[in-house]
């Protein structure tokens, strides 16, 4: 797959992925009182964002023919 995630998009994905991961762990630890079912959902979203940021490749962007990279 070609890289289709630009630098600004990558940074946003890293930041949002980290925040969602921390919120997921906070729910598991009882620090935040939200429904427990949100924890795995947020955890998976966090992992997806972090992986797409690390690889600079987004499957959804490829399927839709989008790109946020300048190349």
Query: What percent strand?
Result: under 5%
What distance separates the N and C termini? 14 Å
Q: Got a strand count? A: 0
Structural class estimated from helices and strands: mainly alpha
Number of helical regions? 3
Rg (C-alpha, Å): 14 Å
Q: Could you name the ranges where pLDDT drops below 50 across 5 or more consecutive residues?
A: none
- The run of helices and strands is HHH
Mean pLDDT, nearest integer?
Answer: 93
- Overall morphology: elongated
Keywords: Membrane, Transmembrane, Transmembrane helix
Protein name: DUF2892 domain-containing protein
Pfam family, one: YgaP-like_TM
Report on this model:
By secondary structure, the protein is mainly alpha-helical. It has one domain (7-64). 65% of the residues lie in helices and 0% in strands. The protein contains three helices and no strands. It has helices at residues 7-28, 38-55, 59-64. Helix 1 packs antiparallel against helix 2. It is elongated, with a radius of gyration of 14 Å. The chain starts with 6 loop residues before the first helix and ends in a 7-residue tail after the last helix. The model has no long low-confidence stretch (mean pLDDT 93).
Give a quick summary of the entry:
With 71 residues, the protein is mostly helical. The chain is built from three helices and no strands. The protein has one domain.
């Amino acid at each position: 797959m070609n890289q289709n995630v630009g630098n600004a998009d990558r940074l946003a994905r890293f930041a949002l992925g980290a925040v969602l991961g921390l919120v997921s762990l906070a729910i598991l630890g009882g620090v935040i009182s939200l429904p427990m079912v949100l924890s795995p959902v947020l955890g998976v979203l966090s992992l997806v964002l972090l992986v797409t940021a690390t690889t600079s490749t987004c499957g959804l962007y490829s399927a839709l023919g989008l790109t946020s990279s300048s190349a």
